[in-house]
Amino acid sequence: MPEKRIVITRPLPGDAVAMLREAGFENLWCSEADEPLPRDRLLEVIGGAHAIIANPGDKPIDAEVFDAAGEQLEVVSNFAVGVDNIDVEEAKRRGITVCNTPTPVTEPTADIAWLLLLGAARRAHEAQRLARSGEWTGIGPSMLLGRRIVGKTLLIVGAGRIGTAVARRSIGWEMKVLYRDVQRSEAIEQAPINAQRVELEEGLKEADFISLHTPLLPETRHLINADRLALMKETAVLVNTSRGPVIDEAALAEALRSGRLAAAGLDVYEREPEIHPELIGLENAFLMPHIGSATIEDRAWMTQLTVDNAIAVLNGEDPPHAV
Ligand code: 8YV
User: Fold this and answer.
1) pLDDT recorded at residue 269
2) Is 178 helix (H, G, I), strand (E, B) or coil?
3) Residue 144: which region, alpha, beta or left (left: phi > 0; alpha: psi -120 to 50)?
4) Is there a contact between 120 and 266 (Cβ–Cβ < 8 Å)?
5) What is the mean pLDDT of residues 288-307?
6) For ligand 1, atom 2, which residue shows the shortest CA distance?
């Protein structure tokens, strides 16, 4: 039987190719360019693949991709916890296993949520720009006033791994934590977090800081729309490290521009890598280019897990993380 073919759509940090060779897989194709593989090239190179090692830039991984790969395709191993770039239902229908990398993504993404929360609340980007500008005239009583965080109320929307890790970090800020999730979560309700489960609307009205951690599903697309933005306090800060389309970006830009909402910290966008042009021009939008999981250690761990997931499926074993 010919050797199983593995396609890696973009070079990953750490040496995925070496890891696969070590495990005895020699029939490998790895893109050399550190950029998304153009669609026509993707459809061309995956022919005959048993495994695709994909990343969120490959979208969509759908029926067309599965057809181009061929019936022998066994696994799509995604370099991400989010799998909204993959048609999971179609994969399931065809018996293709979809895998992801939840564990390494949790803590660094929770850190970035806090960086966004702190940065947006304390106007870190404006402060940084002034410090570097050569125009700073000295400490000023009214200069760059931000918002107090200690003792305020934090709403976590989506109490999974990342939402819970963000809530855990709030202990040092002595915050009251609310959460909204379709399911009850004991991990977030028990000490030391002691979060209280609320309806979304109730939480949006009460919170000073709102952090989004839902997966992107049909029911979470534009979960935060103009109506829900209108429920938030004018002093509230909204943070998103989940997926861009969870927020109606145009409605958010309008709320920030009009002063309806104090500030937002965003790592993800509706049409990445495009960012709504109005957001780019707004001082109360603190923006990052989707770097939630981007630490040296965690990205190397993600590569290892992506490879381990693929190898397990190809060897007929249970993968560490199937969706
Ligand atoms: C990306 C992420 O995978 O895990 C996710 O779902 O969005 C991130 O960790 C990462 O930025 C690589 O594109």
Assistant:
1) 98
2) strand
3) left
4) no
5) 98
6) 80
